[in-house]
Amino acid sequence: WALSANYGHTLAIVTGRVVGWGANASGNLGINSLVSSISTPTDNYSLTSGVWAITAGAEHSCAIVNGSAKCWGGNALGQLGTNSTTDVVGPTQVSGLTTAGTHIEAGAANTCAIVNGGVKCWGDGSLGAIGNNALSSVHVPTAGTDNASGASAIGLGDNNVCAVINGNLKCWGVNGKGQLGDNSNTLRTVPTTVMGLTSSVRAGSLGDVHGCAIVNGGVQCWGGNTSFLLGDNSATSSVVAVTTVGLGTGVQEISSGQDVSCAVVNGAAKCWGQNTSGALGDNSTTESRNPVQVSGLTSGVQTVAAGYLFACALRNGAVSCWGTDDVGQLGDNQSSGSSARPVPVSGMGQNVTALTAGNDFACGRVDSQIKCWGNNGQGRLGDNSNTERNVPVAVSGISGGIQSIQAGVHHACAIVNGAALCWGSNTFGELGRNSPGDGSGYPFPVIGYGLSGKVSGLAPGRGTTCAVVGGTPKCWGRNDFGQLGNNFEDGGAARVAPDEVYGAAGLSHKEFTSRGHLHCAYLGPRIHCWGDNSSGGLGVNSSAATVVQPAPLYNFKP
How far apart are CA 537 and CA 440, in angstroms? Predict the structure, then answer.
């Protein structure tokens, strides 16, 4: 399967053949007619097997069939690449592109393809979109300047083109609104390197007002910074990602809490942020604007989990915690007030395989059980009680089949045999039960809604839960900051049924993360975020207070 849509028509590959529907006035559906519109999927005239790729332009379409590029539809500016300007109603061979084609993309009135590792373009060149240092249209595929080899991906806008070439993102064409990303508004007729982009984003994590991601083995963070959460040796907030200093390139895991963030760096645990309760774990309460080493955790650390003024680490199968301990969140059977260095969590043994932290509680997977400790208000420990626990207790009713566990601010969820189970706060319907109300100390499945056996990712936040269901991100619960990502703000209303994240259907999913009223996910090849942006915590280079649908993370590329 593959899909492509543009102004008025849509194309799909189904079992190797092409079907299309929508506008057809220029023959853009390739069905050998000029019927103005088709309201149901209709087979292409001749592309019945062997189709690898499909793309829809404004009034034309193209495909790669067994390595050969073919186009059809409107051709006033030569966008079909047939060495003419005559419209055609069925697939027609692109001049010279009979083999070795791997990618093809159609724009408004131009087309580009990757052939033998190089980029070739054709069609409207009046604004530089051919990339050949000229401002004229061409009717056959034409190689641009500095893009003849090493290309691995390509995308077309409205008279502008971008391509990944030898690991760098380069763009050319119209640039009146800075769409080429080269720190100018100058039209470019040859490929120009996009400024400031990093690559190799591996994982992300969100706090209440900030987010961080592992990039090229280091860390970049964005959002609120009054508690030094960005780790960039400043207290200045940022709506775009900045580099966290002193971590090098060996970062393996990252976790962002409300006022502290931690990372695993070459097997060592390091933290940054607020330290009034010893939450940095460096055996002090001294504030630091950049990461510091957690005492004693210099090797063997597998995972870190940061909450509100406390954090925990999983090292060689055992768990230790540090920071504030007013409700038992250190799990050391003391509730001693605080500890500025790691203390062992009681009764977890050496077989812990997963760790997660909420606002004031933590949970881990050990053998066939989930065990939690700390604040148990609204049943967030899942032991069918509301009793505070300073040692771990088993979550009721779960005895195997555990695939993952994630804690939100005041509730937690697990995937068990492909089903989502949630417990704790339900004030906004975040447990996915029939209606909002009192919390539950017993794990309940997110009822109905097609989730059973289909959940592959979970991300509980503050009053909201998101999940990947059958490959599609869906969210439920609180939505007053647009945190459901469904293109609405619902005030104080709650949605107890999973609602599909706007525009995410059919996009590949790699990771989901939530915290507070912020949500981010890999959708397609990029990180997208939505929800509360009052501190710039979404990192989308916008000062809007709320973002109600996924927006791409600024300054990141696949």
Answer: 30
CA distance 136 to 349: 71
Contact yes or no for 497/479 (Cβ under 8 A):
no
Question: Encoding tokens for residue 192?
Answer: 């120009």
Q: 225-229, 258-262, 449-453, 484-488 — which is least confidently predicted?
A: 449-453
Look at residue 378 and give its three-state secondary structure. Answer: helix
* Distance from C-alpha of 113 to C-alpha of 338, rounded to nearest angstrom: 60
Give the pTM: 0.61
Run of H or E residues at 38: strand 37-43
b/e per residue 249-259 (b: at least 16 CB within 10 A): eebbbbbbbbb
CA separation for the pair 550, 519 (Å, rounded): 9
Residue-wise over 326-341: b if at least 16 C-beta within 10 A, else e?
Answer: bbbbbbbbebeebbbb
Q: Half-sphere exposure of residue 389, counting CA atoms within 13 Å on the CB side?
A: 26
Rounded Cα–Cα distance for residues 172 and 150 (Å): 17
Under a CB-based contact definition with an 8 Å cutoff, are residues 436 and 378 in contact?
no
Q: Residue 556: its pLDDT value, please?
A: 57
